[in-house]
DNA sequence: TTAATAGTTAACTTGACCGTTAACTACTGG
DNA sequence: CCAGTAGTTAACGGTCAAGTTAACTATTAA
């Protein structure tokens, strides 16, 4: 099981727009470092450092090209993304729990009093929310 | 539909460990600013700025306490989290597509040649991956 | 009205991050 | 060998973000 520490590192790696777009690019297929730098019109040293951050934070892995040992090929690692996904799921679930508590409170009030316009509006918001 | 720009803002907001933990705290229930600052043993001005970042980036919303108008109550907004969740899902899906292509390539090779130990190892990795 | 409370804003300092150029390593191919 | 290519590391400058203390606004309550 991964620690929250890793999650923070994943988020800090993805906080830079360039790095987030590199992740997007690598979902398509693995690519060489120079190819990635060129895609974003950035100097190779700059991209090299971004790739190092992504690598040391576990989001990508690097391998030498079998055909040309000068080239380094970067590919995504799924683990950090999966961990982030798990955290997101937890946040969404707890949020839904709050909604449920609120719904029960609203229902209770509805039983005690009569329905008001404001309560109806609230119910509408809840319904919209379920479409996630 | 939300732009990728918002996604970058969401990620930059969550990149700070303190802010990410504030989000965790607020999944439980809305809280007052001072309560949040105290929870993390941080000065109120410092937390106030974190809360401002979370608010301007759409992750939380602020309301005055109905009982005490001095207090400001912060609660989570689900939209940025949902958008992030969507992006994560796309990354995971594309990654699975790569796996599928790789699997097909491996199968083709298996048909042409005989099975090798390395291929078996690859199959094992794939199976492990499906447990998401 | 006045002291206290809740919170934000302002001013300042410190530390980290991003991009560039230059220098370096390692491999390729003639 | 040697010139060229792929990529990283080093050094530098500029910008931005985070925390602290002090000052300010607004509200409460005596």
Name some characteristics of this structure:
homodimer; 132 residues; mainly alpha; Arc Repressor Mutant, subunit A; 2 domains; three-stranded antiparallel β-sheet; 3 strands; 69% helix; elongated; disordered C terminus; DNA-binding
Structure notes:
Two copies of one chain form a homodimer. Chain A is mainly alpha-helical. Chain A has two domains: 4-76, Orthogonal Bundle (Arc Repressor Mutant, subunit A); 87-129. Chain A is 69% helix and 9% strand. The first copy, chain A, contains six helices and three strands; from the N terminus they run ααβααββαα. A three-stranded antiparallel beta sheet of chain A has the order 1-3-2. Chain A starts with a helix and ends with a helix. Chain A binds a DNA duplex (30 and 30 nucleotides) through residues 16, 18, 32-34, 37, 42-50, 52, 65, 68-72.
Could you give a quick summary of the protein structure above?
The structure is a homodimer of 132-residue chains. Chain A is mostly helical and 132 residues long. Chain A is 69% helix and 9% strand.
């Amino acid at each position: 099981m991964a620690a929250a520490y890793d999650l923070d590192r994943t988020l800090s790696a993805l906080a830079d727009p360039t790095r987030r777009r590199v992740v997007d690019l690598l979902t398509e297929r693995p690519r060489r470092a120079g190819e990635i730098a060129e895609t974003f019109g950035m100097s190779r040293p700059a991209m090299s450092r971004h790739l190092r951050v992504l690598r040391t934070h576990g989001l990508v892995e690097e391998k030498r090209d079998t055909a040309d040992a000068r080239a380094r090929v970067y590919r995504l690692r799924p683990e950090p993304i999966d961990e982030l996904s798990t955290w997101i799921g937890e946040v969404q679930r707890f949020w839904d729990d709050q909604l449920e508590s609120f719904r029960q409170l609203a229902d209770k009030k509805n039983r005690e009093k009569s329905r008001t316009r404001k309560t109806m509006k609230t119910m509408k918001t809840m319904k919209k929310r379920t479409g996630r």
